[in-house]
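Need tokens for this chain, all 303 residues.
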Amino acid sequence: MTRDEVRDYLRNLRDERQLSPHTVEAYRRDLRDLSVFLDGYYGSRQWSWADVDRLAVRAFLSHLTMAALKKRTIARKLSAVRNFFRFLQREEIVAANPARHVRAPREGRALPGYLTQREMSRLFELASQKAAEPGWRGLRDQALMELLYSAGLRLSEAHALNLAHVDLAAGRVKVLGKGRKERIVPIGGHAVDALRAYERERAQQFGAAARSAPLFVSDRGSRLSRRQIQRVATRYIALVAEESGLSTHSVRHSFATHLLDEGADLMAIKELLGHASLSTTQMYAHTSRERLRQVYRAAHPRS
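Here are the structure tokens for all 303 residues:
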């Protein structure tokens, strides 16, 4: 019985909410862990989801804590349980959501890593030098880095872009974000110029392409994989921030941090990033405050 309800919920996530296969698989694992725990919690007797109460959910969290899972992992599993019971309540399988008022363990939010504006400028100097060399790959890599930073894209969003998604005349790109939500993001002049140069060389290398063709391609003309995009980005990041451990996502963090530093409104940054909640965007405000604190301590004579 419990397997049928989990299966129905996962189908809802996949077909109705159109969540990514990766996200659906994460929900499946979390609910499997809950089911295994409840089998032991209730012992030999048969149980149903209607039997699960707040004490059982809290016991599950205690079990995860005893297993030395990270607080972030425990919070994610609790969120999966809460959303699952919300679905069961909507389907009238349970009368109430036992996880609704159960609190996740508190954890300090890690501030995102980012490149300074000086480091980003140096990165683009190096990308421009590489683009001036013979061949088309340097132009592709320059266009990729310019677009990642100019539009604040996630790696998955850059990977999914087609030629039709970029309007160079209007200076904007159509992005398919999390939950298959579309947003239109402006792109700056440097990115537009880099993309134009890349598209001209791309056409000479592979011939004219349909608008539905992928924007960033490999040597074989196929869509550049996520791993290949990550490899390009981390190579350039390592040149300007050696041993920083920063990744492709750090370029997105740099985009948001630099906008905030220059006085951009937090709500505007939220829309540009495609965040569903303002609380997610607010971590960049914390980043800026922490940086100001560091500057103060380094510079003030009585700090």
